[in-house]
User: Fold this.
Amino acid sequence: MKKLEGRVAVVTGAASGIGRGIAVEFAREGADIVVADLVSLDEAAAVMSEIAEAGTRGVFIRTDVSDEASVRALAQRAIEEFGRVDILVNNAGIFTESLLEDISVEDWDRVLNTNLRGTFLCTRMLIGQMLERGDGRIINIASQLGQIGGTSVPHYVASKAGIIGLTKALAREVAGRGVLVNAIAPGPIETPLLDRETEEWRSGKLAELPIKRFGRVDEVTPTAVLLASADGSYYVGQTLGPNGGDVML
Assistant:
């Protein structure tokens, strides 16, 4: 029996990187997948093909997670297609760099609106039907930077720290009603996001990591499967950290 057989999952930001890895791994474990991303259907074709190869059903819904109307449409379409949503992975996010003294209000708002507001909106639109059934899993993708901070990324750090706090608060609200809420805070993972970093940043970060290498997406996805499946039934309000030792709690 696959760990997510018969389950329906919405994964935001699922066209690439960690979101894509989670969507495909969930499909391999038997879940039907809603791929929610701001990219075009053509740009999401690769992940949709991988989901189909896994033998489950995938639906792409173009979504701007920072926009209330767009997220409401995502939730309505997902319910229309599958009848329910069992698992929500709030993965969509953006990353820019700037010292606080230089950051524009527009850039601050854009990062916070996508990363933190987007997590709130998607959760708000889908948690009701989970609570009605007394069953659901919400997995929020944070970052180790939300735990330890980082230079030149105050807006990103604030958004990810906010996600960790939101995870704890919501977990206390709904765990007794059958919905388990947890977070994953990955360290630096080899994704298109990391590829955009300078060589100076990459070499400096590698020197800091006890494991002396960046992580792979397939080293994050097992944590998501754990939290989404029956194996994760006693995890409540936790932030799990596949981070190569960048954070040790």
